[in-house]
Amino acid sequence: MSEATVNNQPVRFAAELRKIDVFSDLPEEELEWVAQRMDEVQFRAGEIYGKPGDPVEYLVVLLEGELQFERKDTPGATVLIAEAGEVTGLLPFSRLKEFRGIARAAMPSRVLRLHKKHFPDMLQRVPVLGQRLVGLMSDRIRETARIDTQQDKLMALGKLSAGLAHELNNPATAARRAALNLTEAMEDVRTASLKFLEHPLSQTQREAILMLEKKSTEKAASRVGPPEDPLELSDREEQITAWLERHGVEETWKIAPILAEAGAKTEKLDELKELLGTALVGPGLKRVAAVITIFGLIREIDNSTRRISDLVTAIKRYSYMDQSPIQEVDLKEDLENTLKIFAHRLKVGVTVSREYGPELPRVCAYGSELNQVWTNLIDNAIDAMNGKGELRIRTARELDNVIVEIGDNGGGVPAAIQSRIFDPFFTTKKVGEGTGLGLDTAMRIVRKHHGAIELQSKPGDTRFRVRLPIKGPRGPGGEAEGK
C-alpha cells in the first residue's frame, strides 16, 4: 500500500457516501461525523493492499473499481469480489485481525476507509449504521461460509475423483489387455485348426482334443483356495517343456506354462500323442493351450468389467444419485460404499477393522450428506496414520440412536487443540492440503440430523463418535422429515 494515494476531504466524502446504500439516508450530522474521520486511498490495477499476516484495521467503502480477495491456501482462485458501492474490510464486532490471503485491486480503484479506533464512537453516535454494518457482516459470513464449504467439497471431490480414476483405470486396463491377448489366442486356434484340415481327424481324435480342452478349462475355472506351490508348478512346467522339446513341438515357451497351470501331466500328453500321432500332437496341444487362454481371458474380462460395475454402483449409492434427498439409509452399506471409494488409499498399508452392530436399524437421513461425514472422518484417519495403520469402524444401537465410530491408531490429536478441532478454518494440515472445513462440515451435517459428534483421542487411539437419532431430522412441526 506504500504507493497508494491518501487524501482527506470531508465535504466531498460526505457527498460520495450519500450515494452508497448503507449511508444514503443518514442524517446530515451523522454522515458528516463519519466522513470527517475517513480518508481516501487510490490503488492502481493489480496493486496489493493486503497480504497474509498484515493487520486488518479499516472499514472500506469502495467508490470506484473492484477489489478481489484470494485465500492463501487457494492461490490464484478468487474467493470474494467487492465492487463499487459495496462496504468491505473490517466491520464492527468482527474478530478478524489479519489478512488470511491476498487482497488486491483488479482495476484502478478508489476507496474511503475508516480506522477501527473510531468504531466505539461510531456505534454510539450513529447506532443505525452499526446495525447495518453488523447485518453486512452476517451476510458476508454466510457468503464466505458458502464459498468455503463449496471449496471444501471441490477439494474432497478432487481427491475422490483421483482415487476413482485410479480404481477404474486398473480393471479397464486389464480388460483392454485381455481383449488384445484374446485376439492373439484366437489366431492360435485358427492356425491349429488349419493344420487339422491338412490331416483330417477321426472322431476319436477330435473327442480326445475336446475332452482335454474341456477338463483343462474346467479345472482352471474351478480352482479355489491359495495359489499352487510355485516350486511344484515350476517343476511341472520343466517336465512339460522337456516333453514338448523331445517330441519336436514348436513354441514350447508359450505352451508349457499354460499347460502346467492347467494341471496337465506328461502321462496324459503321452496318451494324446498316441491318439494324434507325431504330426498333429503339436497343433493339438497348441489349440488346447489357446482354448485354455481364451477361457482365462474371458474370465479376466468378466472380473474386470464386474469390478467397474461394482465401483459405478458404489458411486451411485454413495451419492444417492436419482434418489430423494431424505430416506431410510443402511449405515453399514453406506460405510462400505465409502470404503470402496477410498480403496486406492487403503490398499497400500491400511487394514480395516469392522465391528457392525447386529440388526442395526435403518436411519431416516440425508444419505448423501451423511456420506460426506464418513468421507471426511475416514480421510482424516488415513492422513493421521500417514497412510499406514488400522482404520476402525464400529456401529451400534443405543436406545433411540445409532452410533457410528470411526477411529485410527495414529499419533492422536494433541490435547491442547482438541477443543478447537471442529472450529471453522482450523486445520493441522499443511497449506494446500486442508481448508479446516472438513470437520466443521461434518459437525453441521450431524447437527442438521439432530445428532452429535465428539472426539476421544490419545496416542494410538483416536475415535470420532457420531450419534444419530433413528427417526432422523425433525421438521418444524416436530414430525420426522420425509415421513
Strand order of the largest sheet: 1-2-9-4-7
Main pleated sheet: 5 strands, antiparallel
Element order, helices and strands? EHHEEEEEEEEHHHHHHHEHHEEHEEHEE
Helix amount: 40-55%
Please identify the structural class as seen in this structure.
alpha+beta
* First-residue to last-residue Cα separation: 58 Å
Keywords summarizing the entry:
five-stranded antiparallel β-sheet; five-stranded mixed β-sheet; alpha+beta
Chain-wise SSE layout:
Layout: E1 5-7, H1 10-17, H2 28-36, E2 38-43, E3 48-50, E4 58-64, E5 66-71, E6 80-83, E7 87-89, E8 101-105, E9 109-115, H3 119-125, H4 127-198, H5 203-221, H6 230-246, H7 252-261, H8 266-276, H9 278-319, E10 326-329, H10 331-341, H11 343-346, E11 350-355, E12 363-366, H12 367-384, E13 389-398, E14 401-408, H13 438-448, E15 452-458, E16 461-469
Parallel strand pairs: 11-13
Antiparallel strand pairs: 1-2, 2-9, 3-8, 4-7, 4-9, 5-6, 5-8, 10-12, 13-14, 14-16, 15-16
Helix pairs in contact: 1-2, 3-4, 4-9, 5-9, 6-7, 7-9, 8-9, 9-10, 10-12, 12-13
